[in-house]
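Quick check before the chapter quiz. The format below is the same one you will see on the exam, so make sure you can read both the input and the output lines.
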Amino acid sequence: MTPLPPSRQQGAATAPPVAASTFALVATTAEVLAHPELDERLLAPWERRRLAGIRVPGRRDDVVAARLLLRLCASRATGLPPDAVEPAQRCPGCGRDGHGRPYLPDHPGLGASFSHADGLAAAAVGPGPVGIDAEPLTRRPGPLPVLRRLLSADAVDAACAEPDPGPALLRLWVRREALFKAGFEAECEAGIEAGFEPGIEAGRDDARLTEWTDHRRAAVVALAGVGASAARPADGPLLSSGPAPPSGR
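Here is the expected output.
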């Protein structure tokens, strides 16, 4: 067990200016749990209570990894140590805390998002709304009737017309999830129906989407947000982000 960084109180007293671009990190669950700056003891009591309800050990590890990776993103974005960052969650539907979209109460100008799936974790922190989704390359979303309800039916049909529709459907899905998590619900179908490609506007001037494949971790990742076009690479060899898309659109 690695020692924890300095206390939250010490870090909060000297909070530097927040980042002007988005930090997006992707890693395997094992990489996150072995990271020297991260430890499950960083999680808040309400997060531990939620973890108590997860009976599948692998899924529990994925959730822990995603929440810890979010703290590392916030640390990179703010300059504070990971234990000086206290993410929270609030549901935009019911307005209650403890579930729903993550946010950083001490940094209202920053958006936050995380994702976890089958041994993968991803997180992002940046100015304004942020959404990230990561899925294993082998995952195949479905069934098709559900995809046609949640995505553009034309885009789904176009993907199904390919010799191997699975990868195309997966890209559509992660794009939709990233946009939705960023709060761009109205842009989800319109952007994807327009053949949404990395760096193309998502129906509003400040909305950006970028997508990349992390071959080392066999994952496809989509990042949405106002700062997504300026996503910074992660520090260190174990955690990486995709390259920033071209600045011109």
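If your answer matched, good. The chain is about 30% helix and 20% strand.
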